[in-house]
Amino acid sequence: MTIEAGQPLGLGQPTTVRQAGARRPLGELGRAALGRAGRAALLATGRPPVPDALEPLVRVHRLHHPQADLGLLARAYRLAEASHRGQKRKSGEPYITHPLAVTMILAQLGAGTTTLVASLLHDTVEDTELTLDQVGAGFGPEVAYLVDGVTKLEKVDFGAAAEAETFRKMLVATGDDVRVMVIKLADRLHNMRTIRHMKPASRVRIAKVTRDVLIPLAERLGIQVLKAELEDIVFATLHPEEYARTRALMAGHEAEPDAVLEPFARQLAKQLAEAGVAAEVTVRPRHCVSLHRVLLKRSGGTGPDGRPSGPRPADFGRLLVVVEENADCYAVLGELHTCWTPLPGEFKDFVAAPKFNLYQSLHTAVALSGGAVVEVLVRTRRMHEVAETGVVALGDPSPAGTAQDTDELDRTDPARPGWLSRLLEWQQETPDPDAFWSALTADLAGDREITVVTESGETLQLRAGATCVDAAYLLGEETGHRCIGVRVNGRLSALSTVLEDGDQIAVLTETLPAGGGQPSGPAPEWLAHARTPAARLAIERWLADPPARLPAVRTGPAVTPPGQPGQPGQPARTGRPSGPGRPAAEKRATPVTVAGRPGAAVRLARCCTPVPPDAVAGYPIRGGAVAVHRTGCPAGERMRADGRDALEVHWQPQDAPADGHRATLRAEALNRPRLLADLTAAISAEGVGIVSAEVEPPQESRVRHTYTVELPEPGALPGLMRAMLRVSGVYDVSRPHAPEVG
């Protein structure tokens, strides 16, 4: 649907096609008669008439706001006309035609009087001698705020960064009042309508900015009628040949009788009337870009030159069914799916689950007897208003501090706290204009958003294509830095998993030491998985300047500095010599004493690898030796069950076994490249030697690593376990009780 100057949209009042020659109901006045009656009524009340140039605008505005303050509009117009007097547009027209046209677009959308006043004045502060203080004094702080929000920053002050910083300023102002962006979108629409008067290079530049920033913003604000026209003009500017070809297809279809959509609309209307469902059924033609996308998407719909060809009659439009109540939407759906064959996978319920921009409709597609497939949209009258004009249909925001009679989301920006809040958060972290502009265009590149629910019930709004990394950072930067894995729909998944609409997610985070400390943080490869600017900026900040972590308590071998013997930066093996050459006096084979059996040979069980100060128990074995197990070890419990008496044993802190204190650790992790290398590096960095390592085959993205290590001293074990847990992907480190062998 195209917004044309002087022609009201009639939004929210879909009508069926009247038969040719139908009479106007008795008492219904024509538009000219209404205009004359309106002027007569104004004169009769004693109020000054509005300027002639405002009369078309007033007629449209009164359709949506019968009690509008026309005197305020007249004052704003007179001030704008006087301020812009003598200025010309590139087309040669008086400059005042531009704010008038922008205001007409807003009036057709149904914007309030305050918005229209600000629109009439939106270029005065930027292009005339009028100051913002004068606007505020004459029309109040609300109008002044809107005018300031859309006023461009001077290139003299900001140079090449002026455009990026202007958009940043507008977005920040939009965070407080969404009408700032609504005025900007209407301003851009009129400029695009007159883009032919620009130089070719300027046309391309403006069209690309409109495509990359303004059209996505119109989509997020739900202003569909404005978005559709902007898309068509951009398409014609950047791809004139394809635009001309698509327009020719549309003209050819319009010149022929509709053999599919209109007959089906009449058939559906008759079926709904027989079922007792009050509804208005109309054919809703596609605009140029929409038709072009349909032709490109269809399998086998391209010709030898690779261009779209062979459109079907049903491709040129969809059926729109408008009803009164929400329940009627599902009644219509029932009739559709009962009388015609629904196509699997084509049904979408945006009534129960509205889109992020508050769009609500039932979408379905049915196959007709002749094989044609027709798409059908079903919505209530109110849903239709919001679907067409988005935030404008919600009305002007209520003044701060006033009570609101309706749901808060119905009176403010529908996306907050959503895409706009997230955008406002990360823009503060990007002072560089180029980085901000790149991040803004990337964030707006997705043409849709998805909804993901956490296992705790929190709803997350993400752009389509977002991954688990983006979800983790959306929950908070700290949560993102501590993330070690995710569950998607109950199954462990990789952080690179692309989320789908409706997925359930749980972010697994590492546990920090009781005394505090920093998380292990993101790995560099996470940048390849981050799709949202907030996640990318947080990861880049960490990688550029990782926070200082609490120093680990290391009582083992020192790290060899660069230039010294051994590998630079690796633990120096300076402990006691081991093996056959080790002096007998250095061997300490009794790390524990056994009560009642002095001098008994002691063997530390390899199944549970006890280490001081573990609680342990001894059990007599063959040869008079004593096997020492950790309390609770299954092997030790079996020995007790077999009738062996548990012996009381005590650690000898000053002694160590001949081959050092050995411990077995099991790391549970999400499988990823370089996990083994990162874990072994973390162990070595703690001054701990690895005796053996075992990696089990991964199962459902999970993997288990088992390491037997030689500790420099028993006190190093807690620090080692914490270091392993900080490795990206590791979500649990434990000391297993392995079965006793031999």
Q: In words, what does this structure look like?
A:
The protein has 742 residues and is α+β, with helices and mostly antiparallel strands. The chain contains 26 helices and 20 strands. Helix 4 (97-109) packs antiparallel against helix 5 and helix 11 (179-193) runs antiparallel to helix 12.
What order do the helices and strands come in, and which of them pair?
Blueprint: H1 31-45, H2 55-64, H3 70-84, H4 97-109, H5 113-120, H6 124-127, H7 132-139, H8 141-150, H9 155-158, H10 162-176, H11 179-193, H12 200-220, H13 224-238, H14 240-254, H15 261-274, E1 279-285, H16 288-297, E2 317-323, H17 326-339, E3 341-342, E4 348-349, E5 362-367, E6 373-380, H18 381-389, H19 419-427, H20 433-444, E7 449-454, E8 459-463, H21 468-474, H22 477-482, E9 483-488, E10 491-493, E11 504-509, H23 533-544, E12 592-594, E13 602-604, E14 616-620, E15 626-630, H24 634-641, E16 649-651, E17 661-670, H25 675-685, E18 689-695, E19 702-711, H26 716-725, E20 730-734
Parallel strand pairs: 2-6, 7-11, 13-15
Antiparallel strand pairs: 1-2, 3-5, 4-5, 5-6, 7-8, 9-10, 9-11, 12-16, 14-15, 17-19, 17-20, 18-19
Helix pairs in contact: 2-4, 3-5, 4-5, 4-11, 5-8, 7-8, 8-10, 8-11, 10-19, 11-12, 11-13, 12-13, 13-14, 14-16, 21-23
Quick one: biggest sheet?
6 strands, mixed
Radius of gyration: 36 Å
Q: Looking at the structure, what is the overall shape? A: elongated
Structural class: alpha+beta
Uncertain runs are 4-29, 40-46, 399-417, 549-589, 738-742
Number of helices: 26
Calculate the mean pLDDT score and round it.
78
Count of β-strands: 20
